[in-house]
Amino acid sequence: xxxxxxxxxxxxxxxxxxxxxxxxxxxxxxxxxxxxxxxxxxxxxxxxxxxxxxxxxxxxxxxxxxxxxxxxxxxxxxxxxxxxxxxxxxxxxxxxxxxxxxxxxxxxxxxxxxxxxxxxxxxxxxxxxxxxxxxxxxxxxxxxxxxxxxxxxxxxxxxxxxxxxxxxxxxxxxxxxxxxxxxxxxxxxxxxxxxxxxxxxxxxxxxxxxxxxxxxxxxxxxxxxxxxxxxxxxxxxxxxxxxxxxxxxxxxxxxxxxxxxxxxxxxxxxxxxxxxxxxxxxxxxxxxxxxxxxxxxxxxxxxxxxxxxxxxxxxxxxxxxxxxxxx
Length: 327
Hints:
alpha+beta, six-stranded antiparallel β-sheet, four-stranded antiparallel β-sheet, 11 helices, 10 strands
């Protein structure tokens, strides 16, 4: 192949990409691409499409993109690495979860594969199983905690000082929370990838970074909270990584209610992955606006009811006084 390329150059022609041997393309070119780039490259030619369909290639991409899936190699292999990536990379779409009724049984177990990056370097990674059949899970407020209350995960990052520095720094932190239904062979990414809000506590200096996705046709928020604190040496450590569900009234859903929306997200449509951060941020802004309008409408309704009750009470009092006087 090298001789053919050299001959083409000697004849005054330019060596083209298709002149390369497939093994060279596969081992020296395609292995350097991330998932979206590899998917795009597969559309260029029949040869590249065939080479990019290698599941070992996609398996390496999945494990490099989400190190937490390294312990789930058997499931990723059974699901199909390329199919796993195509389901786990994009966010849930606005059309997802339009129907809350599902023909299938709720999953008895869910696996969370979570990875947190800061400036493209992993600072937290973990895979954890959560059972969903016990009465405790179904009746208690839904919450998945990945860090034990008294544990911390150290990082090499300096803890930010000041609100402006905090917001600027945390905007570089990205998170992926992949929820996996092993039995149903379904996967969904519940994170907005980048933070939707950053809040620094004025007294303790702890930073709460929030990620979110909107489920249930825009009526439920799946919220991921990452709490970071500072150590004595000045480095930042992760104190909390949790997932919870909240409705538009700010009430936390229990396990049974949350499972309905999560199942809808697992079975629902996924996006293409293009502009996923912008779409996720816009959906969250729309949700916050809807929540604000709902709260204002509720306050107006309560105000009207309060006025009516006061007027009714005054009318009854006046009528009673008139009855006493005219008796």
